[in-house]
Amino acid sequence: MYRFLLSRQWVILTLVALVLIPVMIELGFWQFHRHERRVAQNALIEDNLRAGSVPVEELTSPGHTVPREDYWRQVTATGTFDSSHEVVVRRRTSADDRVGVHVLTPLVLKDGKVVMVNRGWVPAADDQHSFPKVPPAPRGEITVTGRLKADETTGASGIKDLKGLPDRQVMLINSAQQQALIGRTVLGGYIEQTAPEAAGGSPEQIAEPDHDSIGAHMAYAVQWWLFTAGVPVGWVILVRREVRDRRAAAEGDDATDATPEPAGATA
């Protein structure tokens, strides 16, 4: 009765089911690991935002790569803004998803070193070749507080570092690039300014990173594992249905063969 399982159709169906099971198990674990990473990142953001502020030079130095455990740490830096080397970072969105630019201004520290400060978001110019209207940075000595961030790279951010851009416009916030442009020693990473707030609210400060939502990764993981369990169950149901249909067909054939011929029938 089960010899039909050796037919070409059923062999292919069985092989597909056997392939789907490990694939969907792996997809479930992939989503589960994404959930774990999101939970860990949320905890890291919350801990670093709650930690007290420290001088920026305690966490970074020229050529330093900011490690993930220091992302979003609260830091302070005291110096004077160098507006002559200010640049804007293209294709950045505001808190309400408007497309514009980020204003990146060098802050010259007392020892002559520089730390790059992302002062916030402003609308882009009417055309891509013009420099946007940027509120001037405060004059004189100032103490900036903000979140420490790592240098942006194409590999980490997915943003292409386009060449041939208009003067004073960049695609990435990268201390090595800015050091080459400014001609001064620049600390690794940059500060995402949170205080003091800009007069008139422009540039708009960068919103605090989301550390509350965890996404639907765990739900997706459970769904993939339920699909995994459904494959053998579905295969068994199909086999039982096929057996039932074949038995019904066989019983129908037997009943036809057992029906007596009408009286008077001739050979």
TrEMBL record:
Residues 248-267 are annotated as: Disordered. Its main location: membrane. The keyword Chaperone does not apply. GO terms for cellular component: plasma membrane. It comes from the Bacteria. It is found in: Cell membrane; Membrane. The keyword Zinc-finger does not apply. Belongs to the SURF1 family. This is SURF1-like protein. The lineage of its organism: Bacteria, Bacillati, Actinomycetota, Actinomycetes, Kitasatosporales.
